[in-house]
Amino acid sequence: MILWLTNIDVHKSFDVADSRTEISDVPLLSCSEAMEKLKSFREKVKGKQQFLAMYSSIFGGITTDPAAMVIPMDDHMVHRGHGVFDTTAIIDGYLYELDQHLDRFIRNGTLRYWLSAGPGDFDLSPSGCHKSCLYAITIQDLSPINFRGVKVVTSNVPIKPPQFATTKSVNYLPNVLSKMEAEELGAFVGIWLDSDGFVAEGPSMNVAFVTKEKELVMPLCDKILSGCTAKRVLTLAESLVREGKLCGIRMKNVSVEEGKNADEMMLLGSGIMVRSVVQWDEQIIGCGKEGPITQTLLNLVVEDMKSTLPAVGTPVPY
């Protein structure tokens, strides 16, 4: 028997013989009864996100019933973390930077793994998997967008080695632990440093700075994930150089001291777009408020997402 526990604190021990654990007869359910249980569960559990539709190559179609948005337990993506993923925003009926995200998605699949390894067995090797599988789900987040400046902390969770950090695999346990650690310290996220002590990235976003000389700098992506949003920000920021608001744009090794002494610090990602950082550990960044360059870059990204330019927008064939 294989037992999985989800949403637990991996730092704490778990005693299956805990006196609080109730042991009762477990019913044997038919397929229809199991589906009814899933439907009941979905109706009771309401989160900040709504799952609108899911495609699965296993059943070769789309379902809009959240209870049916499931994948086989023997898919190696579930029990071995053998798979890759990516995220693309949908704005006014257009997929934002779909080609750029797919390029990274397919590159990871070709060079590392291809989507999920697929169902087959519970062994470590994927040799028993029948074929790779593709899953896609449309999510609507109902939580209000918050662009206020946040606090970050230096993460004590070890960063992934470059071979794994540069691949957007589903194995996100270090990222989760880094986020949990930050929240326990009253911060938004943790900031990873690379093996040489330079600024690396956040658990699901890139980092950038505006120096006192008004140069936009971003850590090199040779040891971290090359974020699509971060790359787009670098392109959009060129207009600020032409306007004289920035003196230049550069990707380089950024020391912690340089980062903490910057005029502005920001987080970049498809989920947060551009988020200002006003404090790192005990150090106030700049004047302690959202920076003007950060706000301008956010506005540029929002405008860019709403545009229908062929370079960034792919119409959804509804």
From TrEMBL:
Cofactor: pyridoxal 5'-phosphate
InterPro entries: Aminotrans_IV, Aminotransferase-like, BCAT-like_C, BCAT-like_N, Class-IV_PLP-Dep_Aminotrnsfr
Keywords: Pyridoxal phosphate
One GO biological process term: carboxylic acid biosynthetic process
SUPFAM superfamilies in alphabetical order: D-aminoacid aminotransferase-like PLP-dependent enzymes
Molecular functions (GO terms): catalytic activity
The organism's place on the tree of life at top rank: Eukaryota
Gene3D superfamilies xrefs: 3.30.470.10, D-amino Acid Aminotransferase, subunit A, domain 2
Similarity comment: Belongs to the class-IV pyridoxal-phosphate-dependent aminotransferase family.
PANTHER family: AMINO-ACID AMINOTRANSFERASE (PTHR42743), D-AMINO-ACID TRANSAMINASE, CHLOROPLASTIC (PTHR42743:SF22)
Name of the protein: D-amino-acid transaminase, chloroplastic isoform D
